[in-house]
Amino acid sequence: MQDLPEQLANGLVLGAMYGLIAIGYTMVYGIVQLINFAHGEIFMIGGFGALTAWLILPDGTALMVALPVMILMAVACSVLVGVGAERFAYRPLRGGPRLAPLITAIGLSIALQQAIWAFYPDAKKDLTFPQFAGGPVEIGSLLLQRGEIFLLIAAPLCMIALALFVSKTRTGRAMQATSQDPDTAKLMGINTDRIIVTAFAIGAAFAAIAAVAHGLKFGQIGFRMGFIAGLKAFTAAVLGGIGNIYGAMIGGLVLGFAEALATAYIEFVPGMSQFGGGAWKDVWAFALLILVLLFRPQGLLGERVSDRA
Amino acid sequence: MRHRSLLILTTAVTAGALTLSACGSRDDGGNEGGGDGKKKTTVVIGLSAPLTGDLSSLGQGIKNSADLAVKTANKTNEVEGVEFKLQALDDAGQAGTGQQNATKLVGAKDVYGVLGPLNSHVGEAMLKTLGSANLAQLSPANTAPQLTQGPNWSKGDKKRPFDTYFRTSTTDAVQGPFAAQYVYNELKYKKAFILDDKKTYGAGLAKTFKEEFVNLGGKVVQSDSVNPEDRDFSSIATKIKNSGADFVYFGGEHPAGAPLTDQITKSGAKIPLVGGDALFSDDYIDLSNKNSEGDIATSVGAPLETLDTAKKFMKDYEAQNYDDPFGPFGGYSYDGTWAIIQAVKAVVEGNDGKVPGDLKDARKKITEALQNVKFDGITGEVGFDEFGDTTNKQLSVYQVKKGKHVPVETGTFEEK
What we know:
The structure holds two protein chains of two kinds.
Chain A: H1 4-32, H2 39-56, H3 63-90, H4 99-119, E1 127-128, E2 137-139, E3 142-144, H5 146-168, H6 170-180, H7 182-187, H8 192-218, E4 220-221, H9 225-240, H10 245-265, H11 281-295
Antiparallel strand pairs in A: 1-4, 2-3
Chain B: H1 4-33, E1 41-49, H2 56-75, E2 82-90, H3 95-107, E3 111-115, H4 120-132, E4 136-139, H5 146-149, E5 165-167, H6 172-186, E6 191-196, H7 200-216, E7 219-225, H8 234-243, E8 247-251, H9 254-266, E9 273-275, H10 282-287, E10 296-300, H11 311-319, H12 330-349, H13 359-371, E11 375-377, E12 380-382, E13 394-401, E14 404-412
Parallel strand pairs in B: 1-2, 1-3, 3-4, 4-5, 6-7, 6-8, 8-9, 9-10
Antiparallel strand pairs in B: 10-13, 11-12, 13-14
Helix pairs in contact in B: 2-12, 3-4, 6-7, 8-9, 12-13
């Protein structure tokens, strides 16, 4: 167990990333009760946007200088695709049967993935992503990579900004109103269409930041990375209570810790040696999800799910 | 570089158009000129390999090398009265797609032999479909022993599942132990952390490595598995760092192997990753963010650069201006295609210079002929034993030095 701090750090970094992506699922669900399965692909497109910015910038640009441009480009690409998806794929189906937008989301996810596969130069295999120069930062016995530090700074900043936005600004309060009761919100003069677009845009922007962090941490991106990341983030959103933005972050962290700890320690539990390690970590993560849903169907922090069902 | 996919697309379309128009004009020419007065029979060699996806650079190398062999045979008129053509199908490294490709090739009226695939699990999926149609299959890269020696090979009960399957690559029954001996005897590493990716190839390779390593007296401090789709190995890396192992053996492919070695290095563990031929790729080094220095990969055969016989192949390959390098399996792909061509030649020569009219009969005869094919290929002597395995059991060890795989040793492993 002497490596517990390191494993917790691994879980924290992974969890923060899941949480950032999960915001997109949870905000959209909270307002239109749509599970946007194309969100993983919006995350992936953010990564490719950042890489494109890096490739366009002249060779030799320092990553620190390039990073703001890359983040802007990533956010721009993701938001464009997210808002476009809302406008052309989901809005025409609003008011239709629940299954229609769900199937559209799955279809859109495949289409976006294949579009990158087919049209982005060289994207048929994984591409390298720029890395910070220099070694890891040591904090006691802990080694933190520079790419991970970016994530550990970006994730709380994003969360604080989002919390302030939702609770303090007019648009944020309009968003809360819309999610509580869209019809009444409309009667109060809230432009719900605009609110929905805003929700998609914020979710996409968070996913884009997560994608930049993903690239910096792993040093590579690929057209398929949205699938697994999206699935995990969706799990995180459900775990924390879908519809609740704080729940998404908590759910992400719990999932990250669960994966790291399951990989490291399950095999030391007597009689469980063959169920530990990397091969079983997803099994444990999903077992945890099932357990939480059995005893607390609304998720860890969820409170408004029952009145919606 | 950045416009490569566009380039590939354009090349493919142009090549397709040219092939079509060339076929037309050649036939016309034959009829008008009267020449030899005989129309050439077209013999298609099917190919299944990952032409897209993570492993596409390896797959493209296989395809291009096969293409070169076909072109060479046509140019030198290797088989009188026969025009060879290559029909390349993409399996994306997926077993299901490989199986569909096999069905498609069996159904085609002019396919007489199949080259490929790259992945052992894809080969496994194609085996039965091709086998029941008596269509010869020759893989330049499959290394899982059970493809030729049956599921119980490790218990000494060797039984060839299908007479139609051959390969020019050596198997993991040889590759794993070869790596174990090198690591134990030459590098003096005694403590291993063994990982695999749960696939046919990876799990099999890790198992044969482990057995030999333990036999030699090495100690396995821990073994574990990862998901081949995963890119986050931070927890495993931390475990490896604290395990006190001298090295990590990874039975798996480079899309997972590259981030794995990257994250092991970043975790602070200064130990090399050792693996098989699926790590022997430039992509492995690129995607590991320069954290693969000192890593070791074994691969089938001797390095082509050191073989005199391969010089012409390398020159010809260069002259064709293919987009991707021939890679670790290019030489085997060329030799494999050539072996199929030789089998066709033997059958045609035994049949008054004609391809047998009955498709089923022709396929069966070519499969039988392939068993007895023997020639000096670019990778050395090409021939097959009673299981369809290559008789050439050479292997090499490569180490990453200054961002390049450098051959450090070549040898032959004697199977017990």
